[in-house]
Specification:
Elements lengths: L5 E4 L3 H12 L4 E5 L6 H8 L7 E4 H9 L3 H7 L3 E3 L1 E6 L5 E5 L27 E4 L1 H12 L2 H4 L2 E5 L3 E6 L6 E5 L4 E4 L1 E4 L6 H5 L4 E17 L6 E7 L2 E7 L5 H5 L4 E9 H7 L4 H11 L7 E17 L3 E2 L2 E3 L5 E2 L7 H22 L8 H29 L7 H16 L1 H12 L2
Helix pairs in contact: 1-5, 1-11, 11-12
């Protein structure tokens, strides 16, 4: 075992990005991915189909992916949908918030949408990009085997961790895989998602908030183009997000900007009943729920659902162990910030580790003080985001949200916020993560 060896459990986007950051800093790192190994043919089969799910990557996340060499591959694939405006509005209420064009906002007091087509103007400033999960993972997979990082990075695919033992602060962890391989590591990183095995084995408890909501996710082709705008309607039943999807077929590209990724939040029982209906029925209900914001829905694909809950680990760190991404926290999807928060974890932890390692004269890697500094930096911010999204969900959805005083407060708040341009620019900056 090397004193500066790091073992990352979880080969998803957050774990893969973190592994690349450490390898680029010439730090020995091993990445364990329980999923079976894929070759290029396997990846092309996956990428041959449109995924209804999409990540709203902030500018900060895009910058991080550029640093590890993955964004360049995503851009070359043309499997991304950049957006230059974000529109938030409520039905049966007053006002809309429209972010874009260097932070300017437009207001429609009647609550109706009137997003302008900017095709005749100068190129608008990008606020972020919508990218399917497999597209990001494929780009990271290509980078994880690249010659410039291979000397420092070991990737083990198709193996699960079955046991982890703490050997003391000076030795770290001994991890056993299901093929009986044993790996010793000074620092163990849990990047293995919401149901984190690492977190459970370390005995770290969770704070959980169940929203009693379920999100329906699907891909739709709409009558009107999305105009590079990410939309979110705040409905009494929950949020409805319409997010631009990349055009992947020749037919799509001949008539671009008509595919959207949908995340439709509903009370759990209502969502579970709706998911059993015929796809055409779901499409018609969805179009009506959005008040035909983008016209009729011509096609609907890849309908799925998932329960919604917020959670946060009571601590992100133990001796020789740290949690990042969904293993540490999970938020309501209404603002699309879940992955972006995990990517900010990667940035903060990689910078803290390498800074403190250099400051110690290349002796102390993953020291408890370093890990605590990371936690102090990230946990309060993630807590604020989690509770803010929960408050927004409470403010718009549910029986209390429909009480007249709450409606009036909400309407007045949205209208006044939309008039304060510095505040709108601040919100846009927070969303971008930079």
């Amino acid at each position: 075992m090397k004193n500066n060896h790091t073992l990352i459990i979880g080969g998803g986007i957050v774990g893969g990005t973190f592994a690349l950051k450490l390898a680029q800093a010439e730090m020995p790192v091993t990445l364990i991915d329980a999923r079976p190994e894929r070759n290029e043919a396997d990846w092309q089969q996956v990428l041959g189909q449109r995924d209804a799910r999409v990540y709203a990557l902030s500018l900060a996340s895009i910058k991080l992916l550029k640093e590890v060499g993955a964004w360049q591959k995503i851009a070359a694939s043309e499997r991304k949908a950049d957006y230059s405006q974000m529109q938030v509005w409520q039905l049966n209420g007053m006002g809309e918030l429209l972010f874009g064009e260097s932070g300017n906002s437009n207001v429609s007091p009647d609550g109706n949408s009137n997003v302008a087509n900017n095709s005749g103007n100068a190129e608008p400033k990008m606020l972020g990009s919508m990218v399917e999960p497999a597209v990001i993972e494929h780009a990271l997979w290509q980078r994880l085997s690249a010659p410039d990082v291979s000397h420092y990075l070991t990737v083990i695919d198709g193996q699960k961790v079955v046991d982890m033992d703490w050997l003391g602060a000076t030795q770290g962890y001994r991890v056993t895989l299901d093929n009986d391989t044993v790996i010793d590591a000074n620092l163990l990183v849990g990047a293995d998602g919401r149901g984190s095995f690492v977190r459970k084995q370390a005995g770290i408890e969770l704070d959980v908030l169940d929203y009693n909501q379920t999100a329906i996710c699907c891909a739709i082709q709409t009558e009107k183009p999305h105009l590079a705008t990410a939309r979110q309607a705040m409905l009494p039943t929950g949020t409805l997000a319409l997010l631009p999807l990349a055009d992947i077929t020749d037919e799509d590209k001949a008539n671009p900007q008509h595919w959207q990724s949908i995340v439709w939040t509903l009370p759990r029982n209502q969502a579970l009943a709706l998911i059993e209906e015929h796809p055409r029925y779901i499409a018609d209900k969805l179009a009506a729920a959005s008040h035909y914001e983008l016209g009729a829905i011509h096609k609907i694909e890849s309908i799925a659902s998932f329960p919604l809950a917020a959670q946060q680990a009571k601590t992100y760190v133990e001796d020789n162990l740290v949690l990042i991404g969904d293993a540490a926290h999970g938020v309501h999807p209404l603002a699309g910030q879940g992955l972006n928060l995990g990517m900010l974890d990667v940035k903060a932890l990689s910078e803290q580790l390498t800074h403190d390692y250099a400051r110690s004269g290349n002796k102390l890697w993953g020291a408890n003080q370093t890990l605590r500094s990371y936690e102090r930096l990230r946990r309060p911010h993630n807590s604020l985001m989690m509770h803010s999204f929960s408050a927004l969900n409470w403010l718009f959805a549910g029986s209390l949200a429909q009480m007249r005083p709450i409606q009036q407060l909400r309407n007045e708040g949205m209208y006044r916020v939309s008039k304060i341009k510095p505040l709108m620019r601040l919100f846009a900056k927070q969303a971008s993560g930079v």
